[in-house]
Design a protein that fits this description.
Helix 3 packs parallel to helix 4 and helix 10 packs parallel to helix 15. The protein folds into three domains: about 1-150, Rossmann fold; about 155-315, Glycogen Phosphorylase B (Rossmann fold), CATH 3.40.50; about 355-520, Aminopeptidase, CATH 3.40.630.30. By secondary structure, the protein is of the alpha/beta class. Helix 4 (about 90-95) links the parallel strand 4 and strand 5. The chain has 18 helices and 21 strands. The strands form three sheets. Strands 3-2-1-4-5-6-7-13 form an eight-stranded parallel sheet, with helices on one face. An eight-stranded mixed sheet has the order 14-15-16-17-18-19-21-20, sandwiched between helices.
């Protein structure tokens, strides 16, 4: 018999992933018993026949004793014990190992374990394989990465579905405080009444009274309380807005466009890792922004939803919905080695130009959205700009969909080296070009900058032969001043018309701090 000790005091996520695992184990003929902390709704547990409730324990040893006592009272012979809890760690495992032949830990916090098998579905890009390296025992095996994300069978082969063009979905998982989201939802109902809005209300949710009041006056607002599975809602919605949590892999499996935020420590993720899953729009503190700003971003995403759909298509790490089945089969077999999720590479579909044998140039695509921002906000770049403070993440996302720049990225072996851009303006029947570049790596040198500037000037001369280049360069930036002098840029301080145009295009550049130059 397999026992699962799952923590139900800190949300439903732990229970749900263990539930899907238990159902797969049952399909393999295993008898499974659950040990939980709280009474759960029948619709969540009806497929699970054997559930026991444990009294609250003040210490890990006390909880372990409670487990052993229950096994003895129920005359349960446990071969394997699965633990999924943030409250219980190596101390609990050590105590239980005295009574059960095999301990299996489900975790995503990279903690030390005594369990012979550790299952952690968190994706941390290239660091995934080394997450437990410093604490691993010789005898331990690990199942690491999203291949082992334990989801319902409803998430298998479900990405190819017809989506509604007018349906929003909000969720905070099994709990969450809806107070801060209520005003955002009200604004959406008033600003975009053509959208159906589904709110998934978890069994432990708080501050829902105002939502019920809001629903009375808006027929397009639907409150869906404690649904058994969210797969169909993900598959039909135009855009998901909510807490990251378990939804990360469910959204990836269904390829659902999403804007997410964090409401718990375990929902903190590196953006590069989220990008690998096709999840490009995560702002950890999103609900701390003014509701009007959040509305602006949601509307921008809806207006560009087809682009966001495409961003979901070609991803480095795919979620196939088979994780629970995969884990169940490995638990019931003689696992001989650890298994780690592998990422695909070379996923950007773009035409590459070779500037040298090793340096390529391609157009910036939507999948570059977060790398572009990360590079722009590097300290060595920001001080050179007309706007020296970091660009805000929400502002960047809104700008990204509105901007009309021609942007490119120079790469070495697929790694961004620098970004370069230019944009055409017509002012008083004359075409003007502005542009710039910024490093994405510490490896950028003068030769790289000169190479890309030479390419840019040749490219724009062919495309916009009648255009005049104007630019502003920080006076302290000797590197770029020299570069542009060599490229033929000259001061326009004596040309009133060009100065007026340049000041219009660069309103934050002062004459005291910047050189105003032009070419053509």
């Amino acid at each position: 018999m397999i026992a699962i000790r799952v923590d139900t005091l800190c949300g439903l996520g732990h229970f749900m992933r263990c539930k899907w695992l238990a159902l797969e184990l049952q399909c393999l003929g295993e008898e499974v018993v659950f040990l939980v902390d709280t009474q759960l709704s029948h619709h969540l547990t009806k497929e699970l026949g054997n559930i026991h409730f444990l009294p609250y324990a003040k210490t890990q040893i006390e909880d372990a004793d409670n487990c052993v006592q229950l096994f003895n009272e129920q005359q349960l012979i446990i071969d394997k014990l699965i633990i999924d809890s943030y409250r219980f760690d190596i101390e609990w495992e050590s105590e239980m190992s005295k009574h059960v032949p095999s301990i299996i830990a489900v975790d995503d916090l990279e903690r030390e374990h005594l369990a012979e098998l550790v299952i952690d579905s968190k994706w941390n890009a290239e660091k995934t394989s080394s997450r437990y390296q410093s604490t691993a025992l010789e005898s331990q095996h690990f199942l690491l990465g999203p291949d082992f994300s334990m989801l319902s069978r409803a998430y298998r082969n479900c990405a190819q579905t017809e989506r509604s063009n007018k349906e929003l979905m909000f969720s905070l998982g099994g709990g969450g405080d809806w107070k801060q989201l209520t005003e955002i939802i009200r604004l959406i109902l008033e600003t975009a009444p053509e959208y159906k809005v589904n709110l998934i209300i978890g069994p432990n949710a708080t501050s829902v009274t105002q939502l019920h009041e809001l629903a009375l006056g808006h027929s397009q607002l639907n409150l869906i309380e404690a649904p058994r599975c969210l797969a169909n809602y993900y598959k039909s919605c135009t855009l998901f807005v909510g807490a990251l949590g378990t939804s990360l892999y469910e959204l990836a499996a269904t390829k659902t466009p999403a804007l997410t935020f964090s409401i718990a420590k375990n929902q903190e993720n590196q953006q590069t890792a989220l990008d690998d899953l096709g999840h490009y729009f995560h702002i950890a503190n999103l609900i701390d922004y003014p509701p009007e700003q959040i509305l602006k971003l949601i509307l921008a995403m809806l207006q560009n939803i087809e682009r966001i759909h495409l961003m979901r298509e070609n991803v480095a790490v795919k979620i196939d919905g088979e994780g629970a089945s995969r884990v169940a089969k490995l638990i019931t077999s003689e696992l001989a080695s650890s298994q780690i999720t592998q990422a695909n590479s070379n996923l950007i579909e773009s035409q590459y130009q070779y500037l040298t044998d090793t340096i390529t140039l391609r157009r910036v695509v939507d999948q570059d959205i977060n790398r572009y921002l990360a590079a722009r906000n590097l300290p060595n770049n920001a001080w050179r700009m007309t706007i020296t403070k970091d660009i805000d993440q929400l502002d960047h996302y809104c700008w990204w969909f509105a901007n009309r720049r021609d942007s490119y990225v120079m790469e070495v072996k697929g790694k961004p080296l620098l970004y370069v851009w230019h944009q055409l303006y017509e002012i008083e029947q004359q075409n003007y070009l502005i542009g710039g570049w910024f490093a994405a790596s510490d490896d950028v040198n003068f030769a790289h900058a000169q190479l890309v500037l030479d390419w840019q000037l040749k490219e724009t001369e062919q495309t916009y032969p009648d255009a005049i280049w104007v630019a502003v360069i920080n006076k302290e930036n000797k590197f770029v001043n020299l570069l542009n002098q060599r490229a033929g840029f000259k001061s326009i301080a004596g040309d009133a018309k060009k100065m007026a145009v340049t000041q219009h295009l660069f309103p934050n550049a002062s004459i005291d701090d910047f050189n105003f130059v032009g070419k053509g």
